[in-house]
Amino acid sequence: MKVNGKVYRSIWLADDGVGVEIIDQTQLPFRFVTVRLNTLDEAMDAISRMLVRGAPLIGATAAYGICLGLREGVSSESLEKMAVRLVSCRPTAVNLRWAVDRMLRVLLPLPEKSRLLEAYQEAARICEEDVQTNEAIGRHGMALIRDIWHSKQKNGPVNILTHCNAGWLATVDWGTALAPVYAAADEGIPVHIWVDETRPRNQGAGLTAWELVAADIPHHLITDNTGGHLMQHGLVDCCIVGSDRTTAAGDVCNKIGTYLKALAASDNNIPFYVALPGSTVDWTLHDGLAEIPIEERDELEVLRIRGKDEEGRVCAVAIAPEATPALNPAFDVTPARLVTGLITERGVCAAGRIGLLSLYPEQAQ
Prior knowledge:
Mean pLDDT: 96
Site (Transition state stabilizer): 164
Number of strands: 18
Family: Belongs to the EIF-2B alpha/beta/delta subunits family. MtnA subfamily.
Largest sheet: 7 strands, mixed
Structural class: alpha/beta
Number of helices: 12
Number of domains: 2
Distance between the termini: 39 Å
Strand content: 15-25%
Pathway: Amino-acid biosynthesis; L-methionine biosynthesis via salvage pathway; L-methionine from S-methyl-5-thio-alpha-D-ribose 1-phosphate: step 1/6
Low-confidence stretches: none
Active site: 244
Binding site for substrate: 53-55, 90, 203, 254-255
CATH topology of the largest domain: Rossmann fold
CATH class of the largest domain: Alpha Beta
Shape: globular
C-alpha cells in the first residue's frame, strides 16, 4: 500500500533486523503512526489491543512474536509456553493458531542454537506467502467483478458492499475482500464501494474508508443498517467480505453483522462472496454455529465511541446511560447456504466441503 507516496506493508522487520514494526491501527484514520515491537509481550499486546487485526496479519504478528520471544530463551519449554500465550490473545481467528503451529513445527526439531535465525526466516516466509496469496485472491475475485461489469454492459460502476476491514491493513498487503477491488481498479474496471461503518469498533469507517481514500477508489460510508435498503433498490451488485475462520463445511465466521448482510443479499438475489486464504479454513470444524468460539470483547467498545471533535482533538465519548450494560460479541457465523462462493488463492468454489476439497484435495480424509 502507499501512504503519502511511500510504500508500506502492515508489518515489517526493523532496519536492525531485530525489532518488528507495525502500523498502529487504533490511531487511524486520524493519525498514521508506526510502532516498534521489541518483545513477545509487546507483540501479544498489539494483537490483544488490536493495534494489528485481521486474521492473516494476526498470524504474521504472532510468527514475529515468537522470534522476539526466542531472544529471551530458545528452549523447547520456552517455545511451547510462548505458543500457549499467543494463541490465547484472540480466540476466534484461526490464522493465529495456524501461524503459531507452523512456527513450532519448523523450530522444535532444530538444535536450540539454530532456532532464532530460522524463526526470523520462517516469519518472513509467512509474510511473503501472505502477499502472494492475497494477490491471487485479488485476481480470482477480479474476474467475478469483471463478469458483473460485462453483465451490466459496462454501464456504470460495479457497486460492491463490504463489511469491516479486509484490505491492506488486515493482511501483510493487498487484503482479502478488498484485493479483488484493488485488482479490478488496476484493470480499469470502474468500482464503487459501499463501506459499512462496522460498529462497534468502526473498522469500516476508520480503516476501509481510509484505505479507499489512499487508493483513490470511489466509495460511500454507510451505517450498518443501510445495506438492506440499498439492495432492495438495486444499488448493490455484489457483496464481498472476509473471514476469520471458515469451517470445512463452508460456514463463515466474520465481523459481527456479516450474517445480517448475507440474509439481506439472499432475499434480494445478490451474490454474497467471501474472500479468504486457505489458512483461514479450519478443517477440524464442521458446524460453525456450534463449534466456532466467538470472542466477547470489552463492553466499553459499545458504550463509547471514538472520534475527532471540532477542535481536532481525538477523544472517546459515552453514548448510553452510565447504568446501562452492553453485550459485545465480536463475530457472527454465516451459514454456507447463504454464501454464493468462496474466493481463495486457488480459485473460486462453492461454500461447502465438496467445493473446498475441489481446491484443497490434500485435506481429504
